[in-house]
Amino acid sequence: MxxxxxxxxxxxxxxVNYVCxxxxxxxxxxxxxxxxxxxxxxxxxIAFTIATEDVPQTLQIEGKAxxxxxxxxxxxxxxxxxxxxxxxxxxxxxxSKMDTEETAIVWIEPxxxxxxxxxxxxxxxxKIWKEITIEK
Length: 136
Hints:
This protein has about 140 residues and is α+β, with helices and mostly antiparallel strands. It has one domain: Pnp Oxidase, Chain A (Roll). Helix content is about 20%, strand content about 40%. Strands 1, 2, 3, 4, 5, 6, 7 and 8 form an eight-stranded antiparallel β-sheet that branches. The chain is globular, with a radius of gyration of 16 Å. It starts with a strand and ends in a 5-residue tail after the last strand. The model has no long low-confidence stretch (mean pLDDT about 85).
C-alpha cells in the first residue's frame, strides 16, 4: 500500500505492484495521469506498507519517491516488474493492460524502515517492532 499527499494536502492510498532489492528500494510502474503520480510529483515524501496475509508481519517504509523513467535503470526495472508480476499463471497484473507510453517507473528510496512481527515475536512492543538500519 502506497500512501501519498496531493498538491492540496489530501491523503491518498493505493495498492501497487512492486519489486524491491536487498536495500529495501522499491520500484513500481504507474500511469502518468494517475492520482498517485500527480501526488508524487507534488510531494515526494511517501509511506509504503507491505503485509503478509497468512502470517501477521508488516514492513513499514517512509521515503522519497522519484520518477526514474528517463534513467538508464528504468528499462531493467520495467523488465523486472513484468517478470515478477507475470509469474502469476492465473491473472495478469494491471500494468500489463496499460499503455506503456503513458507509464512512469517510480523509485522509492527509503529513509526509515520498521519490521513488525505479530506472529512470532514475544509479548511486548519492544519485541514486536524492529527498526532496520538503512545502508547507503
